[in-house]
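So, can you check this one?
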Amino acid sequence: MVFHVLLQLLLLTTALATSIGKPGCTDRCGHVAIPYPFGIGDDPNCVVEGLQINCNTSFNPPRPFLGNFEVLEICLEGQIRIAGLMVWDCYSELGPRRNESQFNSTWIRNGSGKKFTSLEGSFYTFSDTRNSFTAIGCDTIAYIGGGDNTTDFSTGCASICPSEESLNNGSCKGVGCCQAAVPKGRKFFEFSLQSLSERTESFSLCSYAFIVEKAHFEFSTPLLSVQNFTDEVTKKYPMVLDWAVGKETCEQARRNPFSYNCGLKSNCINSDSGGFNCDCPPGFKGNAYLPGDCQDVNDCVPNPCKRGDCENKKDGSGYICSCPKGKHGDYGIDGDGCIANVFPTIQVVIGVCVSLLFLLVSSSWLYWGIKKRRLIKLKEKFFQQNGGMLLQQRISTNENVTETAKIFTEEELRRATDNYDQSRIIGRGGSGTVYKGILSDHRIVAIKKSRVADGIQINQFINEISILLQINHRNVVKLLGCCLETQVPLLVYEFVSNETLSHHVHDEGYISSISWENRLRIAAEAASALAYLHSAASFPIIHRDVKSTNILLDENYTAKVSDFGASKLVPLDYTQITTLVQGTLGYLDPEYFQTSQLTEKSDVYSFGVVLLELLTGEKPVSTKRSEEGINLSMYFISSMKENRLFQILEKRIVDEGGREQLYAVANIAERCLRMRGAERPTMREVVAELDQLRRPDVHPWVALNLEESKYLLDEPSGRYNSSQGDAKDSLKGQNILLESDIGW
């Protein structure tokens, strides 16, 4: 019996071990297995076109390569693990920074200067689920950029070291190490490193940036002192490529037997980036790309049935335990239900079946009743937990809340979005997804659904929602209501139909689509909304994420400031609050980044970057510009100092705008972008200057009073006033509100 079991195990192991490549084909290079559809050489019987592996025999043992990549492992589930690639930048011993690598549209492997060939035209993409973009250093900003036939992108992260004691092994959250997500479906990347300062750190003289598999990387402080990443070191930090067969879908490939590579009994799975992969169904093992190689796993070896007989199911669904010969009954645990064949069992079987049928019907009815009751109680729990009763009371008793303010039910919003259908998605962000919804009264709205619950205090959340409901400014997206019956509250906004300002200024096909007159008006309207938030609302509000993607445009190109997910309420008698840094790369106030002190001048800096986008048509961060000009703010300030303003302005703007007017707007942007917040203008001053430029016949103070008269007549007399706040600072010093927040 023991010999029989061992023999079956040996046969199963042999069958699985031999199901790597086709007969007569080389299926190994050194210590790495090369399973079909991969192969060595160009024999079409041994390898699928596009999946060739080069076995370099100059090494001992030989090493497999995919182009310039050394292959470490090939997984038939659709991944291939390769040795990592990285770039670095080091300080010299004399102090000035020297570049060990170039970063112009090329991959640098281990600082050697070799160009990396992109994956374009191949069956490979960089895995977004298994990789992360990682940077190591103590004064480092790392960018990763690239594109394909339809879109460009640029993202990155910042890493600083306040002190050597602040470093923490295993933590990669901005202190000595930072990480950013790798975009999905990309075949090409380019890196860039930038220093935050010119100082040197004795414990970290170099900055590194690389793509690495998440499961194979954990930050440790000794990495900061490494000055030469050898091939053996980079193998410890591999990255993963996703691969697929061909470029056709499963349905297309099945029509052509020469391009369909899945074996018998195999499942065909469409790849997100094109092509397909093959997989054995549950209960089967083997190489799904070889004919008939998906073999049923014998679940009875070894025998899992104690004191009983095991029958393996040939369809891969497992096994059945039964009583041994001479006994009958239900097998039970360890065969304790098997009894000797003494009494007839048919009557018992019939009685048990009838009882089970009755029990099944009764339990089903009871289950659905309990489930429905639990669902009702869960909705009530979420409603109470999210402060529903308190919010209803404030809406009903507060005369300043707009008439459209409403608490929606979960069912209303599900019907409005067709159960949150993918076709209804109109935007995605770091905090959630925005859907287009049609209410029962045929109103079109935008519904924001958060991804994860924020651990905020209920009173603070209700206070923020009730204040947002009171905002009534034509250039601020109106909050119509919310739903509190879900774990994460849903917010309902008015629908703005004409995309974002960023879409019209930067996206391909919309270049120069907005005239200078409209751009100046959009800037004035956005500034007016921010001035209203800073000084005219019941409590001052700092937006904290002002950018062109958060300025929506309607069909008349009227600006609507949106997305208050990161906004902060400023209590009266406070001029600044202390938070962990949060914002968007390229728009972030450097003074806020350095001190964590958030003021309304942080919004002023971000608005200055938006003005630059309207003037130049350029993105705030772009690796397409020279290394000195990656950051648009620094590029603009440098151009102003060198008297090259009209060389960086967009051609249409130069043609349509008056020279003095363009200089005036550029001057406003320059003052908004000053490093010290105290030297920047307030948003009220910016509104007055922009209105004066649009209507030169109106005195700026008259324009400001006209603007305020539209929105401030009904405001309470005790509202926050920024000029009063400034005076109070000069006499008393600044009050600071300490707060815990989520940073990046």
Notes: Residues 403 and 480 are 9 Å apart (CA to CA). Residues 309-340 form one domain. The mean pLDDT is 78.
